[in-house]
Fold:
Amino acid sequence: MLSYVLSRSFCQVVAEVTRPTIGSVLRTFTTSSPKCGGTSNNASVVTYSQLKTMLSNRNIQLFDVRNPDEYQAGRIPDAVNIPLGNLEESLKLSPESFEQKYEVKAPGKDDDNIVFHCRTGKRSATALDIAGQLGFSRARHYEGGYSEWAELEGK
Structure:
C-alpha cells in the first residue's frame, strides 16, 4: 500500500511539473492505476506460491479469462471462466445477476482476493486493467498463467 501511495504521489508531481494543464492534473488524480511511465506494479501480481496458499486457504476469487475451450481443456481448481471479451460486461452486473450467471459470490470493488489468470499472463494483465477501470483497484493477476500452473503441478 505504501508503494502505491508513493508511486501515486511521484506521478502527481511529475504530471504537475511536466504538463501543468488542468486536464493532465485531473487525469492524474482520477486514474485507477498507480502506474507511472509504464512501470509495472508488483503488488498487482500473484506468484505461483501465493496462488497455492490462497487456494488452500479458500481465500480467493479466481477468474479464468481464457476462452471456454481452453478452460475445458484444463483449469486451475475453483477458477470461474469469464472470457476476456465478456469480462467488462460481467463485472458491471448486479451482484444478484452475477451470482445467478456464474454461481459464485460476486466480487466486490474493495475485495483484495480477486485474481485473474489466462494462459501466459497477457490476457489476465488486460483483465486487470479492465477491472481497475471499473473500480476493482485491489484485484491482481497470476502472471505465470495456466501454462506455469500446469508445468509446476506436473499436468
The longest strand covers residues 61-64. The two ends are 35 Å apart (CA to CA). The longest helix spans residues 2-18. The chain has one domain: 45-153.
